[in-house]
Amino acid sequence: MNLGRLxxxxxxxxxxxxVGVIGAGKFSxxxxxxxxxxxxxxxxxxxxxxxxxAEKALAATGWDLKTQAANSFDDAxxxxxxxxxxxxxxxxxxxxxxxxxxxxGSPAAAIRHTLAAIALGRHVVNVTVEADVLxxxxxxxxxxxxxVVYALAYGDQPxxxxxxxxxxxxxxxxxxxxxxxxxxxxxxxRSTPATVWDHYGLTAEQAAAAGMNSQMFNSFLDGTKSSIExxxxxxxxxxxxxxxxxxFPPCGADDLPRMLIPRADGGxxxxxxxxxxxxxxxxxxxxxxxxxxxGVYVVFEAGSDDARAAYTRRxxxxxxxxxxxxxxxxALYRPYxxxxxxxxISVAAAALRNEPTGTPDAFRSDVAxxxxxxxxxxxxLDGEGGYTVWGKIMRAEDSLARRALPIGLAHKVKLTKxxxxxxxxxxxxxxxxxxxxxxxxxxxxxxxxxxxxAAA
Length: 456
Fold this sequence. Notes:
Layout: H1 3-13, E1 17-22, H2 26-35, E2 41-47, H3 51-60, H4 65-68, H5 73-79, E3 83-85, H6 88-92, E4 99-102, H7 107-119, E5 123-126, H8 129-146, E6 150-152, H9 157-170, E7 174-182, H10 196-200, H11 204-209, H12 214-221, H13 224-237, H14 256-259, E8 274-279, E9 296-301, H15 307-318, E10 329-334, H16 344-353, E11 365-371, E12 380-382, E13 389-395, H17 396-401, E14 411-415, E15 430-431, H18 436-448, H19 451-455
Parallel strand pairs: 1-2, 1-4, 2-3, 4-5, 5-6, 7-8
Antiparallel strand pairs: 7-9, 9-10, 11-13, 12-14, 14-15
Helix pairs in contact: 7-8, 8-13, 8-18, 9-13
């Protein structure tokens, strides 16, 4: 609240919030389209491995490169223009920068950029959720100690769900479940980049013409991205992962308070306080009425059957809220998320209120690499959305006990042992180099391992 007013005030004072963006893909372009028209916000720099790609992203989103492109970071600082570079490190170190936004999609790059930004006293908004699940609790702790913010990206589902959970708790409700919607059927778990477009009703030629990446879209389809996002929410809110992974129950908006509640009360959850993703498709492939494919939700309860909770349940009825049969459970949902168009909320909240739009405070959930097919020694894992593995959410203590290989590290890694289809890939099954990303992950595990896992 009041972020728009605060931004206008900064604009009037001639002290805009200066932001640097790393990555010039679709998510970035959506932010660029809005940053151009947001008062009090100055895009100091845009970094991408391809300067040409960065220039095209700016031009496509309404920027006039002839008048708005700067010759250097110092020039950008003086003139209010934007410097385009292929050097992310120089962007992070630029004078006057307030907030760094990583939109690279690479866990290794995002972790490196985040640590560099924190060391220089920059706030960080991390769009690369894979990096957050791999090492977020450690990154957030480093940021807190440095007096800066490490935030999930508003507009993406994890930050939006964190906001809804926070709303429910601030209202005094007990959160029963929270998550998002997606298009999912059980057979999608075996989908590969070669089959993904069949499930979207597209040809490979149509997808290529639209600039759609088959491996990225396959991660959305095979459940990996959903697991990553739910693990991020879990680590930021205190909600737990389902013991057997996400169930993807078919469920529309009106059925949330009847289905996304514990089985003991007629729902589908093993217990209260879980993350879960609802499918927009019934198991026979038919569309679910009033589906939440693009949305997010939170289910909450009025309380136990006593006089105080009875008043809240009565209020639910009086104000037309949809509930379960008992009137105890209700839900709030948002039918859409606007991705990069909303990212400025995170930037403004960090710079103006020193407040993250969701941030991990514990290692509660992890995402393990699971074999999509029988894998043989010598095969190379190809990571999220690929041909070899998919990502399954697990509780952190279970993941550590099984020495599960995180999906964020299962890319360009060679197997040394056979892994059966459907089996979790272990650290012991691969040859993996001790690079910076692995060291950061190992440190996160040591510092934030749940007590049961640490004791084991």
